[in-house]
Amino acid sequence: MSDEIVSCRTCPRLVAWREEVARQKRAAFAGETYWGRPVPGFGDPGARILILGLAPAAHGGNRTGRIFTGDRSGDFLFAALYRCGLANQPTSVSRDDGLRLRDSYIAAVNRCCPPGNRPTPEERDNCLPYLVRELRLLDRVRVIVCLGAFAWDGMLLALAANGHLVRPGPRFGHAKEAAVGPYTLIGCYHPSQQNTFTGKLTPPMLDLVIRRAAEVAGISGGPE
Question: How many domains does the chain have?
Fold first, then answer.
């Protein structure tokens, strides 16, 4: 499925934007070749925890080709996963940096970076079938950490498509838990700089969410 995701050109606005960013680049990365394509999920195929974000960052995943890799949000997230024993190292800078996830898998609702970090509802819905299929393939997942309201709502749609419809749908909240079919959803503020620089999301807050996810999934152990 990864090859299918990487070759997708369904959304004209997102295709144009991701490729424009890859051509123009940020000055700090002027000497790098940007990925400039949709970004598939990655992690442990036997994961019991799925961590879901909004979309790749323009100069993060869209540059490196791996979700949450090469940007400040990823720095914040992977440090927490390492502290909680779900990653073998606290940093993620490139696709070949040796990072391995334990019992966890990371994906996003949208696989292309959107302008202003705001996919349209149509762009979300175009990408949603990939998440629906990913959930079926990740058949050991029982806990889903949703980073932000967009990820929470997107996951509810994906679960409904897989036959797990809840009415009314539970609303997003930080550290909020909701049972949907065989899954436990846990909400978490997105580790964007807007949240981490203002203290809306702190390392201890994120650690509590990740440790709670591990507890519910029956995962034990500390850093490798």
Answer: 1
